[in-house]
Amino acid sequence: MQPRVIYVHGNGNKVRSELLKSQWDNALFGRDMAEASRMAYWAPLRYETPLPDFRPDPLDGGPDGIEEMPPPAAFGAPEEFVAETLGEARADGGGVPPEGVPGTGERPDAALGDWLRDMTYLADTLAETEEAGEQGPGTEPLPEALPLPAAARKAVFRTLVKHTFRDVYAYFFGGMGQAIRDVVEEALDSLDGAPVVVVGHSLGSIVAYEVLTEQKREVELFVTVGSPLAITEVQDNLQLRPAVPAGVLAWRNASDLRDLVALDHTLRPEYAPPDRVTDLLVTNDSKNHHGITEYLGNSQVRDSVQRMFNRLA
After folding, report:
1. Domain boundaries, the chain
2. Do residues 62 and 146 make contact, with C-beta atoms less than 8 angstroms apart?
3. Predicted model pTM
4. Residues 156-182: pLDDT tens digits?
5. Mutual angle of helices 17-29 and 299-312, in 10-degree steps
6. Is 312:195 a contact under the CB 8 Å cutoff?
7. Which stretch of DSSP H or E encloses residue 181?
8. Where does the record place the region Disordered (predicted)?
9. Domain 4-52+176-312 adopts which CATH fold?
């Protein structure tokens, strides 16, 4: 039986489903995979209309998205940005009672707030460090520094932080979790027993992980890129204790050290059995180091998927 690939996209609005699937196909395989791949497309649950065709996703750091970002002056001190983003997430997510998260008594602010703070400070540090790296003697430039002044870089990075946090908050605390998981479950249920590779990006890696954990479905290869699954605050809100999903035979987790979303880059210490997990440090030279095309096009990610897919074919 022909193997199948299930994609689970990450945070933010996206282009229409068919185009998004084709973009992932071409980044990973170099061609459209037709019926051999399917996109678990949950963006309409959060966004009324898709992005226009071929408009770069601002959360992938595309250069055309920079012009539509808030002006750098709109982002104040880190503490102000954190407070503002928390407030927007509460208003956008909604549905959390004053006494806190059911069963814990904990406010979502505390449950994810440390992650938001750490992402924000890293965003500012990256913007300033990459700026310094271009200024000449006495500094060591980071690879592929953004061709932007520090203020614009800060806008790129903080835009990623803001939208990532709001969608993750809505997933865990805004009543969106089950509806998003249902989309992934439907995609997996359509396989009719075909061997499967599952690829999840950013928030999509969390969703895919929770569905695979619940279903215990056999998966030949689980690939997560730009994933926050190693973050303590994220792990604290998973439905079950972190572990490799029972049916997952191999797990590849890839991240760039500069990716704000994947602040912790190693899953093996927390997700047993560790012999099924391989953590990969890769280079993602999108504008915010989180872009999906750059992750899927990386040889360590692409080759592992293609080898598995060709073996199953």
Report:
1. 4-52+176-312, 58-173
2. no
3. 0.90
4. 899 999 999 999 999 999 999 999 999
5. 100
6. yes
7. helix 177-189
8. 89-110
9. Rossmann fold (3.40.50)
